[in-house]
Write a structure and sequence with these properties.
The structure holds two protein chains of two kinds. By secondary structure, chain A is mainly α. Chain A is built from 19 helices and eight strands. The relative contact order of chain A is 0.09. Chain B is of the alpha+beta class. In chain B, a hairpin with a 6-residue loop joins strand 6 and strand 7. Classes of the chains: A mainly alpha, B alpha+beta. At the A-B interface, helix 7, helix 8, helix 12, strand 6 and helix 13 of A face helix 1 of B.
Chain lengths: 549, 163
C-alpha cells in the first residue's frame, strides 16, 4: 500500500509508535486503510458493537449474580414472592432487578444486546452470502463466521438458563430432553453435564463458568481472527465506477471511517439502552422460580431458539426400538437435522459453488444478488426453511391470536417446510431474472427522461436518455458466472470430454450449466438511449413489448 | 423390579375439600415438595372424570372412582404437560403440542411424542387418602437409549399378573 500521501499528524504519531512497537509501518499504513462505502457493510459492525456491550453489561451482572442452586427463602422487596423458596441464582437475579441501582436496566440491555448480537450476525452473514463475498480468498473467514454464529448460539442458551426462573428452567428441561435423546451418547452427556439427574445442583454453576469464561473466550478469539483476516484481506466493494478486483475505493480509516464507526457504536448503544429502558424483556419476577413440576402456557424461547422449538413441534411422532435400544427420532431428527442442514450447508457453500463453477479466481467485487440467481434463490429457499420453522416455534401464539386451530398450524408447518422453500426458490429465480432484464433494458434503452416528444405522424413517445455514469457502471459490474470448461465443451461438439465420463462428472457439468453462464446479457454497446427507434433489448424471451410505447 | 421414574414411598395427597370433577390437578409426592430432582420425574397429574367416560387403555384397577393418575412429565422432551381441555378431556403439553387423551390411558392423539403418559397404580388408604400402590412401571419423560421397549415389558408383566 502507498504510504506517501499520509497526512503529517498521523504519520508523526503512528511513526513514533511503529518505531517503538517494532511493527514496521503497520500503523502508518493502517490508518489510511480504505473502507469501501455501502450501508450493508455496516451490519457486521452492529454485531461487533453488541458484543462489546455484552461484555461490559455482562461484567456488571457478574458482580451480583450468584450461580448457585442452593435453596433460599426470598426476603426482598418484591412482595408477591416473599417467603417463596427459590434458588440462590434466581434470588440474586431478583436482587439485581430490584435492589441494585441500574441493575434492571443493565440486565435488560444485556438481554436485548444478546438478541441483537445474534440477529445482526445472521443478517451480516446473509449479506455476505447474497453478495458472494465468501469466495476466494475469504472462504476461511466465512467459516470463522459460521463458527462464531454457532458459538454465539451456545452463549445465548447458557445465558438464558442462568436466572433460573420458570421460563429459563423450561428451556433447560428441553435441552436436557434433547441431550438425553441423542443416540449412544445421550445418557452419558446428560449425566456428565448435570452431574447426575435433572436438574441436580450443578448445572447453573457449570453453565455460569461456560457463559462467562469459556464461551466468551472462544468468541473473543474468533472475533479477533475474523477481524484480522478481514483487515489483511482488505474489503470487498460493490461494483461501480473504477472499482475492480485489484483496487479498493472508499474512505480512509482515519479520519472518515473512524468517525463513522465511533458514531455508529454510540448509535447501537443508544438503541440498546433505549430498548433496555422502554421495552421490558424477560420479567423473571413474573415467571417465578423454576420448578420442574410447573409450566405456563405460551412459553417461548428467545428468538434464535425458535427454529428448534418449531421443528420439535411439527415433527410427527416417531420412536423406534432397535435391539432393545430406544431411538427417539421425533426428538433427534428435529433437534439435529434442520440446524445441521443450515450450518453445514452454509459452511460448505463456498466450496460447493467453486466445485460447480470451477471458479478459482480471487474476487473482491461483490455480486449483486440478482446477478447470481441460483445462489440467491438457494439463499431465499434457506431463509424460507428457517422462517417456517421459526414461525412454527410460535404456533401457539398464531393459533391464539388469529383463532386458527392449533393442529391446523402444525399441519401447515409439516407441509410448508417442504413446499415453502421450493416456491421461494422459483419465485426468487424469476425475480432475479426480471431484475436482470430491467438492468439490460436500462443499458440498451436508457432511462425515462420525462420528456414527451411528438413524432411527425402524430405519435407521442417518451424520450429515453442514457443512464447516469455511476448507475451504468454499477450495472455493468456484472460478471458472467463461470461454467466448467468440460460442460461447455460437451454442449458444443456433443462428444463428452475426458472430464465428463462418470455420473458424478455429468451431474457436476449439468449443475455447472444451470448455475453459471450469462442468463440475460447486457447490450455491449454504449447505452445511448436510442431515442425513438426501438432497438432490440437483447432479451431472449419473445413476449417483450417495445419498451417506449 | 427396580424403581424407575418415581421415588418411593407412595404418593399421598389429600382430596379433602377438593372440588374438581372433570378437572385436572397436579400433585407432587408427599415430602418432595422442595426437591427439584424428584419433581422432575415424580410429578403427577390427577384427572377426575366419570368412570364411564374412561376407555380401554386406562387401567381401571388403578383408579378410584374415576380419579386416575398419570405422570405429568411429557414423554417428548420432559416438559410438564399441564393444560387440560375440559371439553375433549385432552392433556396438552404447552411447549411442543403433544396432546394426550385423559380418558384413554393418556394415549397420544397429536403432536411429536410417540408414547403415552405412564399411569400410576392408584388406591385409597383407610383414611381416604389417595396413595400409590406401587411405582410407575415405565420410565417417565423423554426417550433415551437404554429405556428399550419398557411398554412391552410392562404389558407382559401385567398379563402375567392378570392370569
Amino acid at each position: 500500500m502507498k504510504t506517501a500521501n499520509v497526512p503529517k499528524p498521523i504519520a508523526g504519531t503512528s511513526g513514533w509508535l511503529d518505531d517503538r512497537l517494532g511493527s514496521g509501518n503497520f500503523l502508518k499504513r493502517s490508518m489510511r486503510k480504505i473502507f469501501p462505502d455501502h450501508w450493508s457493510f455496516l451490519l457486521g459492525e452492529i454485531a461487533l458493537f453488541s458484543f462489546i456491550i455484552l461484555l461490559l453489561t455482562g461484567t456488571f451482572l457478574t458482580f451480583w449474580f450468584k450461580p448457585s442452586m442452593g435453596h433460599v427463602i426470598y426476603d426482598g422487596p418484591y412482595e408477591p414472592l416473599k417467603g417463596v423458596t427459590m434458588s440462590e441464582a434466581y434470588a440474586s437475579a431478583l436482587h439485581i432487578s430490584f435492589d441494585v441501582r441500574g441493575g434492571l436496566l443493565i440486565r435488560q440491555i444485556h438481554h436485548w444486546a444478546a438478541l441483537l448480537f445474534i440477529a445482526s450476525m445472521i443478517v451480516h452473514m446473509l449479506r455476505v452470502f447474497f453478495t458472494g463475498t465468501y469466495r476466494r480468498p475469504r472462504e476461511l473467514n466465512w467459516i470463522v463466521g459460521i463458527l462464531l454464529m454457532t458459538v454465539a448460539l451456545a452463549e445465548g442458551v447458557t445465558g438464558y438458563i442462568l436466572p433460573d426462573d420458570l421460563l429459563s428452567g423450561a428451556g433447560l428441561r428441553i435441552s436436557q430432553g434433547v441431550a438425553i435423546s441423542l443416540p449412544i451418547v445421550g445418557t452419558y452427556i446428560q449425566f456428565f453435564l448435570f452431574g447426575g439427574e435433572f436438574p441436580g445442583e450443578d448445572i447453573i454453576s457449570r453453565f455460569y463458568t461456560l457463559h462467562i469464561l469459556l464461551i466468551p473466550g472462544i468468541l473473543l478469539a474468533l472475533v479477533t481472527a475474523h477481524m484480522t483476516l478481514m483487515w489483511v484481506q482488505k474489503h470487498t466493494q460493490m461494483p461501480g465506477k473504477g472499482r475492480t478486483d485489484r483496487n479498493s475505493v472508499g474512505a480512509p480509516f482515519y479520519p472518515a471511517f473512524m468517525a463513522k464507526a465511533g458514531a455508529y457504536f454510540l448509535l447501537t448503544f443508544a438503541v440498546l439502552a433505549g430498548l433496555g429502558t422502554f421495552a421490558q424483556i424477560n420479567p423473571i419476577w413474573l415467571f417465578g422460580p423454576y420448578n420442574p413440576a410447573d409450566i405456563s402456557a405460551g412459553s417461548q424461547p428467545d428468538w434464535y431458539m425458535g427454529i428448534l422449538d418449531g421443528s420439535l413441534r411439527i415433527m410427527p411422532a416417531w420412536e423406534i426400538n432397535v435391539l432393545g435400544y430406544t431411538i427417539p427420532l421425533s426428538v433427534v431428527i428435529p433437534a439435529l437435522v434442520p440446524l445441521g442442514i443450515i450450518m453445514t450447508g452454509l459452511a460448505l457453500y463456498p466450496f460447493i459453488e467453486r466445485w460447480i463453477t470451477g471458479d478459482k479466481l480471487e474476487h473482491h467485487v461483490a455480486d449483486r444478488p440478482r446477478n447470481n440467481p441460483v445462489r440467491t434463490s438457494i439463499g431465499m429457499a434457506g431463509i424460507t426453511f428457517y422462517g417456517v420453522l421459526w414461525l412454527m416455534g410460535a404456533n401457539d401464539e398464531i393459533s391464539a391470536n388469529f383463532h386458527i386451530s392449533l393442529y391446523a398450524t402444525t399441519w401447515f408447518g409439516r407441509f410448508a417446510i417442504f413446499i415453502g422453500p421450493i416456491i421461494a426458490y422459483i419465485v426468487t429465480y424469476r425475480i432475479c431474472l426480471g431484475l436482470q432484464r430491467k438492468d439490460a433494458e436500462i443499458i440498451s434503452h436508457g432511462v425515462e427522461s420525462g420528456v414527451i416528444k411528438r413524432l411527425p405522424h402524430g405519435e407521442f413517445i417518451e424520450v429515453h436518455v442514457p443512464p447516469a455514469e455511476d448507475i451504468e457502471a454499477h450495472i455493468r459490474g456484472k460478471v458472467a458466472i463461470p461454467v466448467l470448461a468440460s460442460a461447455e465443451a460437451a454442449e458444443t461438439d456433443g462428444v463428452p470430454p475426458s472430464g465428463l465420463r462418470g455420473p458424478l462428472d455429468r451431474l457436476r457439468a449439468r449443475m455447472s450449466q444451470a448455475y453459471g453462464g450469462e442468463k440475460v446479457p447486457l447490450d455491449p454497446g454504449h447505452g445511448d438511449g436510442h431515442g425513438d427507434e426501438h432497438a432490440a433489448v437483447g432479451l431472449d424471451s419473445s413476449d417483450d413489448k417495445p419498451l417506449t410505447r | 423390579m427396580g424403581v424407575i421414574g418415581t421415588p418411593s414411598p407412595a404418593t399421598r395427597t389429600s382430596l379433602q375439600g377438593a372440588n374438581w370433577p372433570g378437572g385436572l390437578r397436579s400433585v407432587v409426592p408427599e415430602g418432595y415438595e422442595h426437591d427439584p430432582t424428584a419433581q422432575a420425574k415424580a410429578t403427577l397429574i390427577l384427572t377426575n372424570l366419570r368412570p364411564e367416560e374412561l376407555r380401554s387403555q386406562t387401567d381401571k384397577h388403578w383408579m378410584d372412582n374415576g380419579i386416575v393418575a398419570h405422570s405429568k412429565i411429557c414423554t417428548h422432551v420432559g416438559r410438564p404437560a399441564a393444560p387440560f381441555l375440559r371439553t375433549t378431556h385432552h392433556i396438552l403439553c404447552p411447549r411442543h403440542r403433544s396432546t394426550f387423551d385423559a380418558t384413554d390411558g393418556a394415549q397420544v392423539v397429536f403432536g411429536p411424542t410417540a408414547r403415552s403418559l405412564p399411569q400410576l397404580p392408584l388406591d385409597v388408604d383407610i383414611e381416604g387418602h389417595l396413595v400409590a400402590r406401587g411405582d410407575l412401571a415405565i420410565p417417565v419423560g423423554a426417550g433415551f437409549r437404554e429405556r428399550g421397549d419398557t411398554e412391552a415389558e410392562a404389558e407382559v408383566r401385567n398379563q402375567g399378573r392378570a392370569s
